[in-house]
Every structure is written in C-alpha cells, then in structure tokens.
Specification:
Order of helices and strands: HHHEHEEHEHEHHHEHEHHEHEHH
Number of domains: 2
CATH class of the largest domain: Alpha Beta
Radius of gyration: 20 Å
Number of helices: 15
C-alpha cells in the first residue's frame, strides 16, 4: 500500500492529475485535424521517437497487429533507413520537441522530401514544423501536469489511431465504436485504476526487490514494453519483457536456472486469446514447478481501447507504488540526464 505522505507529494507534483488524464490525453491526440492534399495512401508508416515518445506507436501497432493493413515500424536508432520511400508516411515524435535524434531524423526526412507528420508539445521541432509547413499536432501539456513524457503516452496513441482511421488502414467500425464510447466517459475526476487496486498491490508484492520480467500476450507486446519503461524510469527497477509464443522457444530454459527462484519476479499480462491461452497456462504450470513467484493481470474491460488504457494505468500505478517502496524520486531521471549532458 502506498503511503499517505507519498500521495500528498504526488498530488503536489501533478502526478495524480496526470494519472486521471490518460483518457483525455487520448482524446486530445485523436483530435488531430487530419487533411490530405492528394491521393496519397501510405504503404507503411515509420514512427520515429526516442524513449517515451516511441511508446505509443509500439503499443498501438502491436495491439492492432491483426487489423493493420500496412506495417507500422517504430524507429528509435541513429540511422535513417534506406527502405523509406516516397510511398511511406514518416511520423516524427518528440514530447519536448528538443530530442536531438528526432530533430536529426526530421532533417533527413525533409531532405528526402517524404510525407511527414509531427507530434510535439513545442521546442525546436515545433519551430521546424511551422517553418516547413509540416502537418503536426501540438500536445496539450495541461493534460500532463507531471511534465514527464512517459506519462503522456495517451497523446501519441490517439494521434496514431486518428492517422490509421483517416487513411483507412485499420478496421473502421470496431475502432470508431470504441472511440465513441471513450468520448462519452469523463476520465478527469476518476481514473481507470487506483493505488488500492488488488492488482496493483499484489503485483508490487511479487516484484519487490526482484528483477521484473514481464510476459505478455502477442498483442500486448507494446504494453509490456510500457511496463518495462515505467519500472525502469519511475521505480528505478530493472525490468525486461518477452511475449508469447516466442518466449516459449528459449526463455523457459533460462528460467530453469537455480539462481532464478530468488532473483526474478514475473508479471503475466494477458488478454483472452485462444491461440496462446494454452501456451500461457503451460508456462504458469512451469513457473509453479520451478517455484518462481508470478502474478497475472488479465485485461477484461468491455471495449478493447478501454482494456488497453487500463493496462497503461496499471503500469503507471504499479511503478509509482514501487517508487514509494524503494524511496526514490519517481519523476527525476538523474542517470538519463547525466548521460544526455555528457553526450552533448
């Protein structure tokens, strides 16, 4: 259970407000005023972002992998890929607008005269987008009082879904129905999860003082990545993630080492999926046999989008709960800041 003192601190720093704004962030990102000047329809979408600015595309592309009519590629490395051509859409995302890798990537994309959209809250990229008349969506920072990019993932999720729907690159009816239902909900006063949730409490007990290993359904790979990111940055806890069925072809042997029983805490994040249910259940049997502690989170909300947002909220509340346990600053990222200062 998180301490009352920490809750007061979270409120003072805008963290509690941000948690409740997740659905509103999604709506604001989805409000992007999309327009086309020609008959362009992308053959693929390349989303460039670093850290928290790449998470949204990873979450959406894995969650809707069965429905997507073109690939969505998350690009978060230094090179500009040769495979991008005039038939592709490039999205350059940087929450701050000052991420050097994203700025460099944008220059490369402009040099090649690609189709480009942007997502940012301001900074150098906003100046460049305006200067070059690049269509972009400006993030409303009032919906993220914490100021942390990783807690603003809702903006990018809504933005990418708006693009996919506008280009008719995803199943229209199902997604639009989910969005219509989200539009009717008020997330501002009550979030999808709270710190007293049984899932948050039990998951934190399993992960305390362990290396956190997140195992997920294939459609929740991006969400598992989000759990890892939140645990790393917010709780300052080492975490990694794997997904079914791929993990069953190698990870099971790694789990069998004698040292793992005391070192690992496993978090299973799943949806009901008949193709992988048996694989997940057999893996749970093996974990029981090996004596490795795990906790299972099963997303079961009435609509797919709400399930996904709830999973994100769970990751945020879990990492904040663990930050209280470890007595660390959940907002500061001194190691990353040190690295960036020495890199420049």
């Amino acid at each position: 259970m998180i301490s009352e003192q920490k809750l007061i601190e979270f409120e003072e720093k805008g963290v509690l407000q941000t948690l409740n704004y997740l659905g509103e962030q999604f709506k604001q990102g989805f409000s992007f005023e999309f327009f086309q000047t020609d008959n362009f329809k992308p053959e693929k979408i390349v989303w460039m972002g670093m850290g928290g600015s790449a998470l949204a595309a990873d979450i959406i592309s894995s969650y809707f992998q069965k429905e997507l009519k073109v690939p969505v590629i998350v690009w978060n490395t230094l090179s500009y890929p040769e495979f991008i051509n005039e038939n592709d859409l490039v999205v350059v995302s940087s929450y701050s607008g000052n991420t050097q890798e994203s700025i460099d990537f944008y220059y490369q994309a402009m040099k090649s005269q690609r189709h480009i959209f942007g997502l940012t809250s301001g900074g150098k990229l906003e100046e460049l987008f305006k200067e070059n008349r690049t269509p972009f969506h400006k993030i409303d920072i009032n919906l993220n009082p914490s100021g942390q990019p990783r807690m603003g993932v809702g903006f990018g999720m809504g933005f990418l879904l708006k693009i996919l729907l506008s280009f008719k690159l995803i199943n229209q009816l199902e997604v639009e129905k989910d969005i219509d239902q989200l539009e009717m909900e008020d997330f501002k006063t009550k979030g999808l999860v709270d710190f007293e949730s049984e899932e948050v409490i039990k998951a934190s007990e399993v992960l305390k003082d362990k290396v956190a290993v997140i195992l997920s359904s294939p459609t929740l790979t991006g969400l598992a990545h989000f759990f890892q990111n939140q645990l790393n940055e917010t709780a300052k806890q080492m975490a990694c993630y794997y997904f079914f069925p791929e993990l069953n072809h190698h990870l099971l042997e790694g789990l069998s080492g004698k040292q793992q029983k005391s070192n690992l805490g496993i978090l299973l994040v799943r949806e009901d999926d008949e193709k992988v249910n048996k694989r997940i259940d057999l893996t749970k049997n093996l974990l029981d046999k090996l004596g490795i502690k795990y906790y299972e989170i099963q997303l079961q909300d009435e609509t797919r989008l709400k399930r996904l947002l709830r999973g994100i909220s769970l990751a945020q509340h879990l990492s904040l709960t663990l930050s209280d346990y470890y007595q660390v600053d959940p907002l500061g990222i001194p190691q990353v800041d040190w690295f960036k200062e020495n890199l420049s």
